[in-house]
Every structure is written in C-alpha cells, then in structure tokens.
Fold this sequence. Notes:
- By secondary structure, the chain is mostly beta strands.
- It has 3 domains: 9-170, Beta Barrel (Cathepsin D, subunit A, domain 1); 173-309, Cathepsin D, subunit A, domain 1 (Beta Barrel), CATH 2.40.70.10; 324-437, Pdz3 Domain.
- Helix content is 7%, strand content 52%.
- The strands form 4 sheets. It has a 6-stranded mixed beta barrel with strand order 5-6-11-7-10-9.
Amino acid sequence: MKKLYSLLFLIILSGASFSQDGFQFKSKRSKISIPFETSNNLVIIPVEINGVNLSFLLDTGVDSTILFSLDKTDSIQFNNVEKIKVKGLGGGEPIDALYSKFNKVVVGDYQDKNHDLLIILDQQINFSSQLGIPVHGIIGYQFFKDFPVEVNYDSRNVVVYRDMNYFSKRKLKNFKELPLTIELDKPYVTIPLVLNGNKMNSKMLIDSGSSDALWLFEDTSELIKIPKKNFEDFLGNGFSGEIFGKRSRTEEVFFGDESLQNVTISFPNDESLRNASFVAGRNGSVGSEILKRFRVLYDYKNSKIYLKKNNYFDKPFNFNMSGLQVEHVGMQLVKEEIELKTSFLQTTEEKNVFNASRKSIRYQFTLKPQYQITNVRSGSPADLAGIKKGDILTKVNGLVSYKYKLNSIIELLQSEEGKTIKMEIDRKGMILKTEFVLKDIL
Length: 442
C-alpha cells in the first residue's frame, strides 16, 4: 500500500483569474477550535460549501480550494462557472475542471463569502477510496493566509487564532521557531538533512497533504543522490496519473532544532514530475509523517512556523513492508446474525412465578466496506505470497476485513518487521488463504 497521494499541483487556467476576499471570524471570539479526523497521517476537517456539509483535506501544499465531483457534491449550486484544464504529478494528460467564483465556505465560525473553487470533473480522482472515509475536496492557502493556524495532532484539533497575541506567550516559549517563505501561495522552509553522509541545507515545501515523511527531487542539488539501499515503489496518485519512484532513508533530518533519525524518503521519477513546475531552489517536500510528530503553528502573515514535539515524536519511521496497496472500493451486503432474548413467565404447580428467557437467532443484511488490492510491489512479501492486483480482501489475521477501518489495515502493514500477516482473499469467486511476513528492506 502506498503512502497516500503526495500531491503537488500545476493548474493551467484558461483565462481564469483567481481573487479571494479571504476567511473572516463570524463572531468576536479570539480563537476557533475545529475538530478533525485523521487517516494515513492526513487531517480531514468539516467544511460547508454553499450550505452543503462536506469533509475536506487540510493541505498546505495547494494554493487553490479543490472540490471533487462526488455524489454528495451534486446538490451544490455554483455560480460564474467556466471550464479550465488542470495538470499535476503523474505522466498523464491535463484533465478538465470547472472554475467557480463567489462561493460561501464555512468552517465552524470561520467563513469566506467570496471563495473561488476548482471542481474536478473526473469522478475517479478523489481521496475517499484511499483513506476509507469520505473526503470531498482539499483546502489550502486560503485557510491559512490571514490568521495563525495551529494543528494539534495529539488532541486532533485545528485552532485558528485572531492574531498571535491570543496565543499564550508562555506556551510559545516551548516552541521552536523557523522562518517561513510564502511563494506562489505555498509555504517553504530551509532545513538541514544528512544524505549519503553529506549534510546539506534543503529548501522544502511544507506539504500537509502528503502522508510521506520526505520527498526529494534528484539532481536539484549535486548532493541529492538516491542511496544505494532503495527499492522501486508506487508512490501515489496525482491529477495526471500514477506516481512511481524509489524509497529509501536519510540518516538525519533537523526540523525545528529537533533531530529525526532514519527518516523514510521518496524520490519520484522523471516521468512522474514531467508536468510539475517548481519554485526556484526547491529540493523537495516535508510531509505529514514528519509534521504529525509536532504541534505545528503556522503564521503565514509573519512568515514563521512554530514547532513543539508531541507524543508521536519518538515513533519509528516505518513504511508499508507488505508491498500491498489496499483501497476502499465500495460497500458489500453482509448477512449478520442477531441474537434475540425472549422473556416469558413460567408457573409451577406451587404457583411460584419466575422469569425465564429463550435465545433465538435472526439475520439481517447490512452494508459494510469492501477492500481491494489495487497494487502489488514486485518481489514484495505479498507478491511472493501470491496476492495479485484485483483480489478482494475478505479476512485479515482471522478477522473479517469489514471489521477494520482502512487506516487500521494501513497501520498493520507498516507495523514492525517480522510480523506475520494472514490474509484470505476472493479472486473471481475463489477463496484463497495465504500469509507473509513483513520485511524491512531498508
């Protein structure tokens, strides 16, 4: 299974001009707290678009608010719509999209009454199948640009502050400050890292929409070379197709003066990057596998980011050691037993009355998630165990697959080297059982 959707967008606009009034506080409150869900390291927040309640990925790596053409979004009314072309990572061609002005976007007490949207028409492009929870779009720069925003991965809350004066100065002393630059509406930092024994300063996009730890672009520096210990892998999906490259590790990364060891790193290949354009001097991206280890405070207006390590900091940097990519591919009708207890009165000849009960079984049919194998890395433990692309996952370690959330399966497949994973799969109606052992090849 991949690290999900390390997205970098290049948007080709046909005569469209983006203008935003920006988000404002609806009330006089000093801060707004917004609870979020997580899946595969990513932050999903509730967003209302023109009166319709949706779920959006909070992504510092995009400059535009993007809406996917899913069933629930069909009821949204749009004004001032024109057709455009969108490109992104991947080797495919540009895709059709719509550009819409004057939309009302509300996140709790935070709202923008004049918000521009990109609407992706291809229903195959979405996050829901990869995350296992509904995701209707992506929101980025417009959410962050006017007010300080804190992302607390421990408490699973995003907090928007009216200004930095409302963030406790006493608490701020425990944070490490990094200078931030905003270029083409995206945040960049320069951080030291050690690769192949060489220490270098690297200009990196802060990309909370990437579930990976680091991406590096080969040949953007003489010191950026893929380590000898690496493997070919599927890295994710972009707007223009699938992204492939190599995975490896870097010896050390310094982020907010904290040292992170043995960090996983991805190197997308040239074909995957051919549609992308980068700001001058950029070497790669810092993704959510690193960001989630910190309490992060973004202050775009003052060109700063503040970091404080949290309870995830000491977790190892694991990757998917199975070689499987699993996705949610819809719902299945499942027959389930329901145990019923019937109480009744029983009377003896001595007129003693007491309660008794009798058990009975009924059945009901309910809709449950269905998971499919959508990619198998060649030579991986899952590949050697005979699992193939297109197989339907029916059981994992003896438990029916629909009892799992997709994120739980992802965590299991990158849990620890030497762990045995038993699977039952449905291959065109034939039930097959197999098992494999997770192996760290880095």
